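Field reference: sequence -> structure
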Amino acid sequence: LKPDAPGLGRRTPVRVAATADGRGLARVRLEVVQGDRVHVVADKSYEPRPAWAFWGPRTERAELRAEAGADNVPGLKAGDVVLRVVAERAGTWLLHPAPVVQELKLTVRLSPPTLAVVSSQHYVAQGGAEVAVYRVGPTSVRDGVRVGDWFFPGYALPGGGAQDRFAFFAVPYDMSDGTKARLEAEDEVGNLIELPIVDKFFPKPFPRDRITLEESFMSRVVPEIRAATPDLSDRGSLLENFLAINREVRAQNAKVLADLAGRSQPRFLWKETFLAMPSGKVMSSFADRRTYLYQGKEVDQQFHLGFDLASVQNAPVPAANAGVVALARYFGIYGNTVVVDHGYGLMSLYAHLSTASVTPGQEVARGETLGQTGATGLAGGDHLHFTMLLQGLAVSPNEWWDAHWIEDRLVRKLGAALAFTPPAGESGKRPKASGKKAGAPKKAPPKKAKPKRR
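Structure field:
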């Protein structure tokens, strides 16, 4: 008899396993007992082996899964309760075994943790980030901000009290209503409290782009990526292999990034504005909605979740801020890639590198060279694909490049917890747009790269 929590809440999952030899099981029943009230939450009977047979089908082992709590047990109140499982074994003509009974004493808890928002003016744009400071009650075991399918966990506020917490959160690039974001706290039996957290939301239309797939491009990138992705099966044609990479490998890469966030260090590893690539021209922007065409027909659509920044070929790529290298390897659609952890689920990603000069676990300083730009992965030419990640979700780098945004949106709420010191003259410094359609080749001297869209 194993409940999934140390008590009962609104709907606590319970697992029961029973075994019997001889003719096998006849019946298993799960009851909730409080005072003189008994409520059956699960009851299942089984067909035993015939009493006259020495062999034949029987149920030697059975498992029941049920939920027990205030939502499905009428009149259940906070306080002591007993979970009881009754297992009956099939008897014989002469023997009728008594039921086996097992009981477990628990406590019913129906009140969620207390939760209070401490910070104010939570203004967030579509594809952008924010931070919330709040206080939870002592019964909370999980807290953070939920935005659609994304959950952004809370952390202990550095220098704060025992119940003081904060959470970075973001509204995904593909969510047009950020007001549904909720700050939440949950206790160990699943009692949940939710509070609205977004004061102002700014929807943002992202650019759309159309990319014509050419045989020469696919012939170059597909074999490279397939060679580095041995579990990707051959789909029979160049186009189908490209689409498998653009869809399946892209999704696999996204999952790895989300998993990577779970190992982010719970401390601030940075204290300055995030750097953009020096002299990098913006060739494609964050969250461009790309439509892929082949022989005049639409074959795929994907979001471009970062900035494509172009300089000279094999340009040095600096770390946007201090941190610890979380990933440095060939990484699917991104080619040679470095991911730097900046703490509390915040990371930066540098893709399509020709070479990487760092290794996982290595501490890097702001501006330290991580590698050189290149055209590995799904890249049409030499450039850097750069993005910021929050719990694995790509968010707009524009905000993190802006010292004013960091001071106004983060430092004002976090206070001394974030020892931010913006470098002189770098407030609001961002890469310059190329003035051309996203991803179009750039006119440059012969030694310059001609970046193309990924």
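Note: The chain has a mean pLDDT of 92.
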